[in-house]
Amino acid sequence: MTEWHLLPTAVSASADGAGTNWELALSSLWPLISGAIMGTIPLALSSFALGLVLALVVALMRLSRNRIVSGIARAYVSVIRGTPLLVQLFVIFYGLPSIGVKLDPWPSAIIAFSLNVGGYAAEVIRAAILSVPKGQWEAAYTIGMSRTRALSRIILPQAARVSVPPLSNTFISLVKDTSLASLILVTEMFKQAQKIAAFSSEFMLVYIEAALIYWIICLVLSSGQSVIEKRLDRYVAH
Questions:
Q1: Mean pLDDT (10-residue bins), the chain, 238 residues
Q2: Which of 35, 200, 203, 208 has the CB geometry, 3.0–4.6 Å to 11, for a possible disulfide?
Q3: Per the domain annotation, does 185 fall within a domain?
Q4: Nearest Cα to 214, choosing from 41, 11, 65, 23?
Q5: Is residue 2 included in any domain, yes or no?
Q6: Is 108 inside a domain boundary?
Q7: How many distinct structural domains can be found in the chain?
Q8: Whole-Å CA distances, 44 to 119, 198, 233
Q9: Which parts of the chain span the membrane according to its record (predicted)?
Q10: C-alpha dist (Å) from residue 136 to 105, 124, 157, 160, 227
């Protein structure tokens, strides 16, 4: 991921002693927004998409009648949910090179976040599938559907509605968690904030500005979540 060249502009007002805090806040706004648009949001979206695919696979493994398959999925979920995300990031970025596997910062972050989302979202999807009445399965079998077809055509669409709120919350949390990627050299919004703060020495101002941008992003996502939930409720009502 390329660096943004707006950083000197963002800190020049403070660096030459002629600017005010207000000028610094205005000049650093676009570099931070650029960091969100080009770093934070793509990182969150790509990780969440991959994590959802992984979560569906793990959820189905957890529901498998094969004890070995179910046990592997259960162990994976236990490890992911029982260890800090920061540790997972460090294991992938700093730990894997010790066994000959070296990854760049961005792939490392995407893998770590995807694995983390997969562990948490798997339990959400599993619970959503289990919430569908067993009669739905029986009705599908009655009209000649296979288990796979019943799952894809009958069960998963109903489970999707149930899982929207918790999965939306998972995505919102992921957007905030992407700030941890700055610790493995990924240039996203918080990394931009760290650079600007280091050059300007206005740590409080810059970090509060970054926090406000995170807050606004999460407010937008929460509003979108509410709209989706209302539309799903209206669809079910009909």
A1: 49 50 84 92 96 96 92 96 96 94 94 96 93 84 82 85 90 95 90 89 91 95 87 59
A2: 200
A3: yes
A4: 41
A5: no
A6: yes
A7: 1
A8: 16, 25, 27
A9: 41-63, 75-96, 204-224
A10: 45, 19, 12, 15, 27
